[in-house]
Inverse folding.
């Protein structure tokens, strides 16, 4: 059970790192879209 717990903990850390990267990309895309819409207006 200990090995399984360590593996799930590692997977959680990896998923969290990936989700943080995805959130940063979404924020950058949102800012780019906002600037683009502002430029069009």
């Amino acid at each position: 059970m200990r090995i399984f717990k360590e593996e799930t903990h590692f997977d959680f850390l990896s998923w969290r790192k990936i989700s943080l990267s995805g959130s940063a990309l979404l924020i950058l895309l949102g800012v780019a879209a906002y600037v683009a819409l502002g430029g069009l207006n």
Observations:
- Residues 16 and 22 are 10 Å apart (CA to CA).
